[in-house]
Amino acid sequence: MTTIVEIDDLKKVYDGGFEALKGGSLDIREGEILALLGPNGAGKTTLISTVCGITNATSGSVRVGGHDIVTDFRAARAMIGLVPQEISLEPFETVIRAVRYSRGLFGCKRDDAHIEKVLRDLSLWDKRNAKTMELSGGMKRRVLIAKALSHQPRVLFLDEPTAGVDVELRRDMWKVVAELKASGVTIILTTHYIEEAEAIADRIGVISGGQLLLVEEKDALMQRLGQKQLCIELQQSLNELPEALADFDLDLCDDGASLVYTYDTAAERTGIARLIAALTAEGLNVRDIQTRQKSLEDIFVDLVHNTGNKEDAA
Amino acid sequence: MNWTAIAAIYKFEMARFFRTLAQSFISPVISTSLYFVVFGAAIGSRIDQVEGVSYGAFIVPGLVMLSVITQAISNASFGIYFPKFIGTMYEFLSAPINFLEIVMGFVGAAATKALFIGIVILGTAALFVDLQIAHPLAMLSFLLLTCLSFSLMGFIIGIWASNFEQLQLVPLLVVTPLIFLGGAFYSISMLPPFWQTVALFNPVVYLISGFRWSFYGLADVPIFVSLLAIGGFTVICMGVIWWIFRTGWRIRA
């Protein structure tokens, strides 16, 4: 697969001395959806802003389609579409004029057929003559996407496209992203929702404290980090764990009313069957069972902790 | 040069102007008429003539300059401040355009609007006084250069301002007083000698003097000095803007 965006040792230090990016390198493959996952303030937006030309890098380089973003910025930027995190639109302008304007800014000749297609794909065609300030939050965000797609970019950056968006809209957005990918656009999105990265990304990059901790295929990552918890609700509460269950990684919760078993989905044996058998042998009746994926926070703690250990060892 | 982008910015900015065409048109007509009533009729009736020109006609170039300068500054500063305020600045920074193209789009539109207002005022003035234009080409050049240079200045103010109050600060505190003291309504030669010297430090004096010369052949300062002053001012503004975009001051982190 060809690389479309090459980020090499990118550093950003703000005037106050804050190091927002500490020298990350990243190759983005053509046609993929890459999710950059990280908590607030991790450096996700700084990374995107630097690639898109909104922030100047302190050092390092970025090439988009082989074009350097500084020395050959016209060719590089012509390939990029950016959907910012904040909803910012000219309030008195109509949807279609705003989208046409963006196309013009990118130096493309007016193309009503393309604009119509973009607006239809984003379900905005009926609203094309509405002023942007009259639209709902979800629609405004779609207008931002339409603006970013107006000049037919090959790479689309979506900065937190679903922050503060309800579940239904989030799913709509995922659908839009999937359709864009199908049309051949490379998509980089930032998010702090692990479900989002899981639902749509091909690869996931984890970023924290200005450092790119890892970039991996989603499936491999989910499996590697895929510790799950099995919550077993009991019919009778326990005061303490029975001796026979001491071998298992179990915790008593809810005043003894449920057991939480932590296991690794990547392991050869999860031990669930053995645990259930042991429970039955102990005469404990199960009322309900549920499993829970490890949360993003847990994953971060693990990752950051591990990275910290490695650094200490080095 | 990304001409399509320049045209896009220019048209977008002009559209804002045309949306409020009535206001854009009526307010300068009314304010000019008021100036003629107050200065031309009330005061002017007691001042016979200034160097052979009726007082009403004498103040026309100054009135045009007053409106053109104020309009150029307010249009250009608002034009670039608004995207900063609502957050759409990101689009200009991420588009394949350079600073010169952004400036050409915004300043071009602001200068066009100011020019339009200037012409409207001249037209209104012609209804009140007998207007003569001795050097039409010079008149047009001065008008165009004034529209351009003060639009550039407005652009700088718009980039600098971080709130609406600051946007008004320079026009109210610096520009308007300079215009009023710049001989818009009187000839510098009418001042006592000391204040004549002080007046020569006011850049607007050169502008109004040159512009008035193109109408009546009357000037407080030599015409080439006026041209030099307005030309120099344009170059300074361009230099500041070049520096702004080079360093990303107040625009790019």
TrEMBL record, chain B:
<keyword id="KW-0472">Membrane</keyword>
<feature type="transmembrane region" description="Helical">
    <location>
        <begin position="221"/>
        <end position="245"/>
    </location>
</feature>
<keyword id="KW-1133">Transmembrane helix</keyword>
<feature type="transmembrane region" description="Helical">
    <location>
        <begin position="140"/>
        <end position="161"/>
    </location>
</feature>
<feature type="transmembrane region" description="Helical">
    <location>
        <begin position="55"/>
        <end position="82"/>
    </location>
</feature>
<keyword id="KW-1003">Cell membrane</keyword>
<feature type="domain" description="ABC transmembrane type-2">
    <location>
        <begin position="19"/>
        <end position="248"/>
    </location>
</feature>
<keyword id="KW-0812">Transmembrane</keyword>
<comment type="similarity">
    <text>Belongs to the ABC-2 integral membrane protein family.</text>
</comment>
<dbReference type="InterPro" id="IPR000412">
    <property type="entry name" value="ABC_2_transport"/>
</dbReference>
<feature type="transmembrane region" description="Helical">
    <location>
        <begin position="20"/>
        <end position="43"/>
    </location>
</feature>
<dbReference type="Pfam" id="PF01061">
    <property type="entry name" value="ABC2_membrane"/>
</dbReference>
<feature type="transmembrane region" description="Helical">
    <location>
        <begin position="198"/>
        <end position="215"/>
    </location>
</feature>
<feature type="transmembrane region" description="Helical">
    <location>
        <begin position="167"/>
        <end position="186"/>
    </location>
</feature>
<keyword id="KW-0813">Transport</keyword>
<dbReference type="InterPro" id="IPR052522">
    <property type="entry name" value="ABC-2_transport_permease"/>
</dbReference>
<protein>
    <recommendedName>
        <fullName>Transport permease protein</fullName>
    </recommendedName>
</protein>
<dbReference type="InterPro" id="IPR047817">
    <property type="entry name" value="ABC2_TM_bact-type"/>
</dbReference>
<dbReference type="GO" id="GO:0043190">
    <property type="term" value="C:ATP-binding cassette (ABC) transporter complex"/>
</dbReference>
<dbReference type="GO" id="GO:0140359">
    <property type="term" value="F:ABC-type transporter activity"/>
</dbReference>
<feature type="transmembrane region" description="Helical">
    <location>
        <begin position="102"/>
        <end position="128"/>
    </location>
</feature>
<dbReference type="InterPro" id="IPR013525">
    <property type="entry name" value="ABC2_TM"/>
</dbReference>
